[in-house]
Write a structure and sequence with these properties.
By secondary structure, the chain is of the alpha/beta class. The protein contains ten helices and twelve strands. The chain has helices spanning about 35-45, 75-95, 150-170, 185-190, 205-220, 245-255, 285-295, 305-315, 325-330, 335-340; strands spanning about 10, 15, 20, 55-60, 100-105, 130, 145, 175-180, 230-235, 260-265, 295-300, 320-325. Strand 1 (about 10) and strand 2 (about 15) form a beta hairpin.
Length: about 375
């Protein structure tokens, strides 16, 4: 049988040549939110990999929504112009569809880059006051975030809308809202980080309210031909936290509102989480979402083996498989997977002569 991993898939009007997605990966290499030459090199490299879809890293909708002061953003004309330069160069040499993940870090903002320790930055060292659903810090030593009031919620909702409009102007072909990994929209969802007593806290319906408002507002301004999806954490890996049953309920609400896909990850809301890592440890979460909702589903998390990725798709656990750190380590992973599975992949003409003689049909003619 032909490889299922290399069968095409349509996200609405967006055609993907295969089921391999490059997941968003923070680079901590922007200049006041603006993309730099690093992004040109990084995205250009990945756009030559043969994957079906490339999603740009978590991109802040306002300056205070960055994870670190070096994060990518799309809140200003300068940010938009810088990313336009990168995209123009990449698109000259690749027709791979490019999407973007839009997010707000909430209480996990104002930190150092991972290679500098990752701790919260002091206010006098490129740090800032953070915002969250409740005044609960991520780490006990962090400054408590300010609880968002009605004006703050409106500001952030409008920031998502304005950034989505910029993404459309840039010709980006898919938008993913970041509701995972303990960032702001996930903070509203999880009872561990949301202890509000108003319409945005307490019961599940209330905790879902703000993320759903953001989704509705973004979906309304994005043309119907452009898929808008959501990345979720299927579980907090914590007693009393967000879990797969709540995730399914959230995804059902998103489906009713017209979400195009769900990208299922996990964790990130608490430093006390206990995760037993193993290849495909998050696949059961994706399987549960897909089985319950029928939504186009992306599985991610330590899927590095070609046969494993094939099995995830062929077995119906998910419609697509996303790679993150694995494709940084092996940037031609889709080429190697296609060779192993007897499939073909698109390669730039400058690289056609690299096709190994034992894989004479690897590169599409």
């Amino acid at each position: 049988m032909p490889s299922q991993l290399f069968q095409p898939f349509d996200l609405g009007d967006l055609h993907l040549v295969n089921r391999i997605v490059i997941a968003p990966m923070c680079q901590y290499s922007a200049d006041h939110g603006s993309a730099t030459d690093w992004h040109l090199i990084h995205l250009g490299n990945l756009a030559l990999s043969g994957a079906g879809l490339l999603i740009i890293e978590a991109t802040a909708v306002e300056a205070d929504g960055r994870i670190s002061p070096d994060d990518l953003g799309l809140w200003s004309d300068a940010n938009e112009a810088a990313l336009a330069r990168v995209l123009e160069a990449v698109r000259r040499h690749s027709d791979m569809p490019i999407g973007i993940q839009l997010g707000h870090a909430g209480r996990k903002a104002s930190v150092q880059s991972p290679w500098s320790g990752g701790g919260q930055r002091p206010l006098d060292d490129r740090g800032w006051q953070t915002f969250a659903p409740s005044a609960l810090p991520m780490q006990a030593t962090d400054r408590p975030p300010l609880p968002l009031d009605a004006a703050g919620l409106k500001r952030i909702r409008e920031a998502f809308v304005a950034t989505a409009r910029r993404a459309v102007r840039l010709g980006l072909q898919a938008i993913e809202l970041h509701c995972a990994h303990g960032y702001l929209l996930h903070q509203f969802l999880s009872p561990l980080s949301n202890q509000r007593d108003d319409a945005y806290g307490g019961p599940l319906e209330n905790r879902m309210r703000f993320p759903l408002e953001v989704f509705d507002a973004v979906r309304e301004v994005v043309p119907a031909a452009i898929p808008v999806g959501v990345r979720v954490s299927g579980t907090d890996w914590m007693e009393g936290g967000w879990d797969i049953a709540q995730t399914v309920a959230f995804c059902e609400a998103l489906k009713a509102r017209g979400t195009s896909f769900v990208h299922v990850s996990s964790g990130g809301v608490s430093p006390a989480q206990k995760i037993a890592l193993s290849p495909g440890y998050q696949v059961p979460l994706a399987r549960a979402v897909k089985a319950a909702t029928g939504l186009p589903t992306i599985a991610v998390g330590l899927i590095t083996d070609y046969e494993h990725a094939e099995a995830v798709v062929a077995g119906g656990d998910a419609d697509m498989v996303a790679l993150a750190r694995g494709i940084l380590y092996e940037p031609r992973w889709p080429w190697h997977a296609a060779a192993h599975l007897g499939a073909s992949v698109k390669a730039p003409k400058q690289y056609l002569r690299s096709q190994p003689s034992r894989f004479r049909t690897l590169f599409e003619s």
